[in-house]
Structure of Sigma-70 family RNA polymerase sigma factor:
Amino acid sequence: MEDKLVKKAIKGNFKAYSILVNELKNEGYKLAYTILKNEDDSIDAYLQAVEKGLKSINKLKDPQYFKTWFLRIVINESKNIIKKNHKIVYLNDIKIDEIKEKLDTETKIDLEIALENIEPQVKEMIKLKYYMGYKLDEISSILDIPIGTVKGKMYTALKNMRKELEIIDYENR
């Protein structure tokens, strides 16, 4: 069903395109929000992605990748808003409600300190995996980088965070 809609959208059917992007509305907004941390900017990023996608839908070669293609546009539009507004977005400002509820105050602080030392691209991978629930192959597609790079960078970052958290825990004893 969805492939048929995508094919219609590629041929210029506005109604088919509208249905497709509407199905991705919540996911697109949440993705933008994890990057921007601002409701208005997140809505703007999603809407700009809808507009940009509409203009370039005819360039999509494989209908099965519509979702990945569109979410990549959302990410790029979110980044454009950051550049335009000269905003710096720190991962430690993003609420990790499920994790934080289970942690004591000291552990929360330690976790946020460890997250500060991660490079921006890896922070984005972590957001996609642990905040948005994407699989590694989906992250690879969305960020347009090899899956081996995703695995390697995330493995290294998480390993370094564990070491850092162990050091912090040892120092606090």
Observations:
- The chain has two domains: 2-85, 91-172.
- The chain has ten helices and no strands.
